[in-house]
Design goal:
Layout (H helix, E strand, L loop, with lengths): L7 H21 L8 H29 L5 H6 L10 H4 L5 H22 L5 H29 L3 H14 L11 H8 L10 H14 L21 H10 L1 H5 L6
Helix pairs in contact: 1-2, 1-8, 2-6, 5-6, 5-7, 5-9, 6-7
């Protein structure tokens, strides 16, 4: 297999894996706690989709690294500073509106980016994208519909949805700000640059917020750091839960 002679591909695959694992775990925390049974099941199913995608990425990353580490090692035996997921996905669930805002802003980036990855010259990335696009198409449909439903619902639901969007807004741009490992791959033509998806991403977000009768946040603040291992306090607490079994019982197999 011909791979770029650079650690950038390995780092990028880990980044994608970490995004999916962390967001999948966050959604999994809703299992048994959803506002209604149908949406409890929907969030659990999206969680399973994302964790399945994370497994594909971690398996590929282990293959690229070639040091004998497994998907479990990469998922459970790295420290907080070694995770490179975007800050957006590690934000706490909050109320249902906060979970929807986080999911929608991520999905609005995730789907168009995966579509570009379908034509990546790297066969591993193209293969994972081919498996994930159908799932993420549903994820965006689901989160978008809930933004509309809450935004154009009751006075209370509209207020909660607006607050949730306002609070998550500063984290969205990190997804379109290439880290050095991404820029190397962009320059090499392995992955798409932000300009290739920005128009669709902005249109999806803007059109949805307006249709939901919400106000487009205008706060110019941008919060970054996740791609370089600088995270919010929330990730460490989440990893303590996520990694507990593997660290307490090393090598445990079901």
């Amino acid at each position: 297999m011909n791979q770029p002679a650079s650690p950038s591909l390995f780092q990028f695959v880990l980044y994608m894996a970490d995004n999916c694992l962390v967001l999948g775990h966050r959604l999994g925390e809703w299992c048994g706690h959803g506002p209604v049974l149908e949406q409890d099941i929907a969030m659990t199913n999206i969680s399973l989709d994302l964790i399945g995608q994370a497994r594909l990425y971690y398996q590929y990353a282990a293959e690229l690294e070639g040091k004998g580490r497994t998907e479990d090692d990469l998922a459970y035996l790295r420290s907080e500073r070694e995770y490179t997921n975007a800050l957006l996905v590690e934000l706490p669930n909050g109320d249902f509106a906060h979970t929807i805002a986080r999911q929608f802003l991520f999905d609005a980036w995730h789907l168009p980016f995966l579509k570009t990855m379908l034509s990546s010259p790297d066969p591993g990335l193209a293969d994972i994208a081919g498996k994930a696009v159908k799932e993420v198409t549903y994820h965006l449909k689901w989160s978008r519909e809930w933004v509309l439903r809450l935004g154009d619902g009751t006075e209370e639901s509209q207020l909660r949805m607006q607050v949730a969007l306002d609070e998550a807004w500063m984290y969205r741009l990190e997804l379109l700000m290439p880290a050095p490992f991404e820029q190397w791959l962009i320059d090499a033509g392995v992955i798409a640059g932000p300009d290739e998806i920005r128009e669709e991403w902005e249109r999806t977000i803007t059109d949805t917020i307006r249709e939901a009768t919400l106000v487009l946040p205008e706060d110019p603040a941008v919060q970054t750091g996740g791609k370089t291992g600088i995270h919010t306090e929330h990730l460490g607490h989440m990893l303590a839960d996520l990694q507990y079994m593997q660290r307490a019982y090393p090598g445990l197999e079901w």
